[in-house]
Design a protein that fits this description.
The chain has 17 helices and 15 strands. By secondary structure, the chain is an alpha/beta fold. The protein has 2 domains: 221 residues, Adenosylhomocysteinase-like (Rossmann fold, 3-Layer(aba) Sandwich); 156 residues, NAD(P)-binding Rossmann-like Domain (Rossmann fold, 3-Layer(aba) Sandwich), CATH 3.40.50. The strands form 2 sheets. The chain has an 8-stranded mixed sheet with strand order 9-8-7-10-11-14-13-12. Strand 5, helix 7 and strand 6 form a beta-alpha-beta unit.
């Protein structure tokens, strides 16, 4: 497929959206001002595989402003905003290999088109680009390293490292506190419910909302669903996460029990078949299924099809399935990321910190020029602190600082009472 969506009307709309996001991403813009003169990415080839949204458009603008040569593709078949992709191609002159609603074959063709640019740094979300890079690497690439945006991707890449097959260094951007404690909790918490509401216009108050998984994403969704009046039920396999959910005030139960009483189901685990054939069979009439995990494997879609006598499209984002039991089940966004398939993704304000981490991590890798060992690296604490302070400053918030006496006390054993 073409690396340009050639539509003037679309590109104009996309530019307006990117401009809007830029006005709400002060940390990223402050970093552009900081590095625009020195251009630490001058001539560095950056390949991105990340949701093509207005916020990503701002990141791409900043990367280019500080010198990077960029090629980009989407990391999910339903998350690309075509008007943003058109604007990046037409207005920013970026090689964009992305379009909403592509097939699996086209999806991987786009990734391979980005790989063909011989990147020095990869920016990934879900690790598909990184994994495909590893399949293609035969010594010809000049790769300094890569970054990973999401929990699912970090899990895959740590597994690659554990197997001894990781071929270049990866910075786990997802694991930065200024990413997962904000993007995952507040971003997904709000945007996942936004997607469900846009797709169904259902009233959340009074509904039984089953949240599968109580990591950062599940925690954020559970809190916001409860804040809108839902009765939240959490399912978990991790005893510590389940205990946290219980002490946070949520009902905790197994999925086989929850499936019988839930009105809305939201998966957040990164694992497959979290909602199984039996779970779907046991659901009551009118149950709604949504997924907030990276891949569309958390809900058993083959089982949903097999249990159905027919399906019909309710609207752009929602499919209805008539089960053999006589009940009807609704699926949002084909079981893909509901906050991007049925809404616009995370708010710009929270992606500001996530993408500031992406930018600084890309600079770190470029400056290493390939000297780092092939392993998964954490974001340095100093980077987390820099981003948090910049965000607070943009919000007009001031905090205390330690006195020299307090620093000395904390650095030693300290006196007792």
């Amino acid at each position: 497929m073409s690396n340009r969506i050639k539509d003037v009307t679309l590109s104009k709309e996309g530019k307006k959206k990117i401009d809007w996001a830029e006005a709400h991403m002060p940390v990223l813009i402050s970093l552009r001002k900081k590095f625009q003169a020195t251009k630490p990415l001058d001539g560095v080839r950056v390949a991105g595989c990340l949701h093509v949204t207005k916020e990503t458009g701002v990141l791409i603008r900043v990367l280019r402003a500080i010198g990077a040569n960029i090629a980009w593709c989407g990391c999910n078949p339903l998350s690309t905003q075509d008007d943003v992709a058109a604007s990046l191609a037409a207005d920013e002159n970026i090689s964009v290999f992305a379009r909403r609603g592509i097939s699996k074959t086209e999806y991987y063709e786009d990734i391979h088109s980005v790989i063909s640019t011989d990147p020095n740094v990869t920016i990934d979300d879900g690790a598909d680009l990184t994994v495909e890079m590893h399949k293609k690497m035969n010594g010809k690439f000049t790769i300094f390293g890569g970054t990973e945006e999401t929990t699912t991707g970090v899990i895959r890449l740590r597994a690659l490292q554990a197997s001894g097959k990781l071929k270049y260094p990866i910075v786990a951007v997802n694991d930065a506190e200024t990413k997962h404690d904000f993007d995952n909790v507040y971003g997904t918490g709000q945007s996942a419910l936004d997607g469900i509401i846009r797709a169904t216009n259902i009233l959340l108050a009074g509904k039984n909302v089953v949240v599968a998984g109580y990591g950062h994403v599940g925690k954020g969704i559970a809190r916001r669903a409860a804040g809108m009046g839902s009765n939240v039920i959490v399912t978990e396999v991790d005893p510590i996460a389940a205990l946290k959910a219980k002490l946070d005030g949520f009902h905790v139960a197994r999925m086989d029990k929850s499936s019988q009483i839930g009105d809305i189901f939201i998966t957040t685990t990164g694992c497959k078949e979290v909602i199984s054939r039996d779970d779907i069979y046991n659901m009551k009439d009118g149950a709604i299924l949504a997924n907030a995990g990276h891949f569309n494997v958390e809900i058993s879609l083959p089982s949903l099809e097999a249990l159905s006598t027919r399906s019909n499209r309710i609207n752009e984002h929602t499919m209805g399935y008539d089960l053999k039991t006589g009940n009807k089940i609704y699926l949002i966004g084909e079981g893909r990321l509901v906050n991007l398939a049925a809404a616009e993704g995370h708010p710009s304000e929270v992606m500001d910190m996530s993408f500031a981490n992406q930018l600084l991590s890309t600079i770190r890798l470029a400056e290493s020029e390939g000297s780092l060992a092939p392993q998964v690296y954490d974001v340095e604490r100093s980077q987390d602190n820099e981003i948090a302070r910049a965000k607070l400053e943009s919000m007009g918030v001031q905090i205390d600082t330690l006195t020299n006496e307090q620093k000395t006390y904390l650095e030693g054993f300290g006196e007792g009472t």
